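Before anything else, study the sequence and fold tokens given here and see whether the fold suits the sequence. Record follows:
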Amino acid sequence: MAGLREDKKRQTQQNIMEAAKHIFSEKGYGQASMVEIAQEAGVGTGTIYNYFPSKGALLLRIFTEEAEEMKGALGDPNEVEGDLLESVIGAMHEFAEFFEHYPKAFWRELIHVMTEEAEESIRLRQGLFGIDEEMMKWIMHLIGSHSESFIVEVNPEEAAFAIYSAAISDTMLYMYNEAMGQDEYKEQLSRHIRFLFNGKMKPGKKE
């Protein structure tokens, strides 16, 4: 019986998250309400608060699960075999695909929300930066575990930061350029990562 209750709770939580994804995509973060999400999920508004204390917490939980799926697809950085550069590019393409889950207008609005000093905005900002940090740790460990691929000494932490900076710049350009599609976004990421690695890798390790 206890197992059935736990299964029902997990299903209810999943229904709430799926409803929230739909409402966030349709209305944006600011205009989405917990009441609408509850109606979409087929539960009472109070039920949502039993699982998620706020709208920001709900969104952050969705993002965290999506980020975990992304990391799961990448695997253990210490066990990645094959070309290092292509592995890094592949990881950043996974990062880029994260932003396909919602319209560009949603991301632009969310950036605006995170600049506010309200407590909810601060928690959301900290949480999303934490997800980014985990992704960059993966890149850092990947580079560190493939140090033999370089002809010069490369600091994994500094390399990961440079890749992260390029990725964020490209992502912001993508979000604010309605004409840019995902393929162009990924190609730009690839070019900039290749530029960062240019001249640092042993022959036969570049492509």
Remarks:
- The mean pLDDT is 89.
- Residues 2-31 form the longest helix (30 residues).
